[in-house]
Every structure is written in structure tokens, then in C-alpha cells.
Amino acid sequence: MNPSRYRSLLLLLFYLSLFSLPLSFNWVADRWNVGMMLFAEPLMALTVAAAVVGGLLGWVAVPRLNLLDKLIGLHFGALLLATVFSTDPLVSAKFFITLLLYVSFGYGLPRLLVPVRSEWLAAVGSLALGTSLLALYVLVQQAMQGISYQLSYSIAEPFLHHGHTNLTVMLEPLVLALNMALMYRTRTQSFWVRALAAVLLTGVLMVVAFSYSRASYASLLVQAMLLLFYASWATGRRLLLPWAVAGLVILAGWQVLEEVHPQASKPSDPKLLTELSSVSDFSPANESNAERKSRWLYSLELFQQHPVLGIGPGTFADRYLEFVKNSPNHPTYFTTLRRMNAHNIYLSWLVEAGGMGLATGLLLLGYVVWRVVRRAFQWPAPLGQVALSVYLLYFLLHSLTQDFWQEPRVVVIFWLVIGLQRFWEDGYPTSASVSGQRARARSGVWATVEAPGVAQSSAQLV
Questions:
Q1: Do 75 and 363 contact (CB within 8 A), yes or no?
Q2: Would you place residue 14 in the very low, low, confident or very high pLDDT band (cuts 50, 70, 90)?
Q3: CA-CA distance, 84 to 185, in Å (whole number)?
Q4: What pTM did the predictor assign?
Q5: Neighbour-count burial of 129, counting CB atoms closer than 10 A to its CB (0-12 exposed, 13-18 middle, 19+ buried)
């Protein structure tokens, strides 16, 4: 097999998988406990398997391990150890293999393929196109049904069984990409390109606005503040007019839909301002917050019982369901029983993989954040580093109330961003330099070669 042709085939599978990722839906095989996404997981598995075969046969260059690779291996080693000694090895093994697929696809595949700038743009574009179609679907459904707290869940149901917040978290990277498109201007960027980006941004923000997701409102507010803080005034002010127009369109659309579908909201549905003001309310009257508090406290109890290796990856759901059913004093929240994670990624590591899982996870995330943030404080900050910093910061903050290791679409995008971050650090490798690296890897004489752009100022990279 021609290595170049094989690599092109892998790239095509990579693009198709990324396009299908937002559009995949939970399928009827739930009763068999097989898979979560009809299209994306088989495509990802096929792509990763093809990459492994290509690497073994020498058709794909296999790079030497770097520190980040080793830290990822260390964390997954801790998860594997926790799986071996799990309270339910079968559940933990399935969960571990699934996580391994996601990191292999989102991070490992770009490491093997070493995409150049145009290929990264095609990958990001494929994911953005699929996400845009998902946003369009949601807008059409809301135009037909209206706006309410309950509808925000039901509209996302075919694609994201776990509710409105996970839908909006899936959209946040697209919001960031569109913001960057509006901030970044070149001589070749036409007015119509910026207008299209502004229209898309308005549509995606409208989906988030109609979601009733407090966490997403906070995340996007943090994203906006960080973008304005990092960018110079000359760059950041390009966002103000699109944001203002988007806000007016969203408010007008909200009023129109409430007039067209006055019956959409039930008397029991919380109003938006009431929902936003309930952030600090952890009483039983606030189902979402009370349930989070219950899971956090129960996680600490489980950690005390299994402090070193935890109860096993992916087993919290069954343990918590058993706890709820056997606790007469615990109110049963039927709408959230299916979202059986700790609602905190750090507590999830702690309870499911013990102290080792938490330590290795924090070491991994800390290293990634350090490599991004150390460059983002250059002034004026390079726009690429601004985008990566903003994404990682709100990922880490949002992880205090969500367990994104349990959300396949979000964690795949996370690993993809990590791969993109390494690409930025390498200074936009050119096709010639990448080809030389692949040739050396296939010949077994790998040496780290700096790309010609490494010495350039980061400000010139975007």
C-alpha cells in the first residue's frame, strides 16, 4: 500500500467521523447496553483500527513518545489498575475501552497523521459543519414547539440523552471558533465571510439562549470576557457589533416564539430569571442543585471506603442508583436518575479511580494548561493561544459541575483540542518538514526536527 494514499484514506475517515460526531444519536440498542452513538463510535473505531494497522505495517509514521504522551499513558495506567480491581470489572472494562477509543481518535490519530495547516482546517471545518447542522435542527424544533425548560431537554433528546447542558457544551467550541473568525481579519477576508460568521454565531447563541442552561450562560460569559481581556482593543472591538446584533435578534426571536407558542411553558416550569437566580440554592426545592450536592457528598463517602484505587471506572452510576433506591430519606429525582455521574470530573476520578486516578488526571490537565497559558500571557496574546486558553479554562471550570469524561462528544473534542495545541506549539509545520518527519519515522531513525516556523513569533502563527 502506498503510504501517501493510505494516509489520505485515514484523513477521509477522520473527517467523516468528526462530521458525524455531533449528529449521532442514541440508538435502540440501549437495552443491549451496546454503544452510545450509532454513527460516530463505529466510524471512530474503524479509523483508529486502520491507523493501528497502518502503524504496524509501516504505512503510517509512528512518532517517539513525548512527555504529554507519557502523562496520558500514566493516567490511563491508573484507570487500568482501577479497572482490574474494580467492584464491577465488566462495567469498568467497557468504560475503559470506550475512553481509550476516544483518546486514540481525538489525540492519537493526529499524532500519527501529523496534519498540516490545511488538513487541520478541514478537520475543524468538518466538526463545525456537523455542529452547525445540529444547531439548525434545534432551532427548527424550537420554531415549531416553542421555548420552555422542559422543551430544552426534549428537543436535545435524540442526540444528547443527557439534557440541555450537554447540548450547549457541544456548541461552545463552535461559538469560540466563530468568535475567532470575527476577530481575525486578513486582506483576503471578504465582508460576506464575516457576515456569514456573524449569522452562524447568532444562530448558535440563540440555541444556547433558549437552553435554560445556567452553566452554559456562565461559560459563554467567561469566554467573552477572556476574549476581550486577552485581545488588544483593535482586535477585540470587532466582536462588539456582532454580539450586539446577535443579542437583539435573540431577544426579538424569544418574544416572537412566546407569542406564537404561548402553551409551550407549563405552570410548573421555572422562569428564566428564577432559574438563573437559583445558582446558590441547594435545597430540595431546586432539583438540579440538590441532586448535585447529593452526588458530591456520596462521592466523598465512597472515596473513604476505597481511597487508593476507587470503586472502578464507570461504576458510580450503579452504586448511586442503589443508594437512592435504598435511602428512604433521599428524594427520587426521576428526571436526573439517568445521568448517573458524579457531576464533577475531579470527584469522578477520585471516587472511581481513587487517589491515583485524581493525581494522574490533575497532573495531565495541569501540564496541558501550563503549556497553553504560559504563551497566552504574551502581550498582545497570539489569537490561537487565546482560543486554546479560553477553551481549556472554561472546560476546567465547567468540569466542577459536570463529568465530561462521561460525555463522548465533549471528551473527543477535548482531546482534539490537545492535539491542535501541540500543532500550534510546533509552529505550523509545513508539508515539506512533515513529509521528512514521516520518512524518518518509517525508516526507524526518528529524530525530533523543529519545523521552520518554530522560531517565528507566535503572533504570526494565526
A1: yes
A2: very high
A3: 52
A4: 0.81
A5: middle
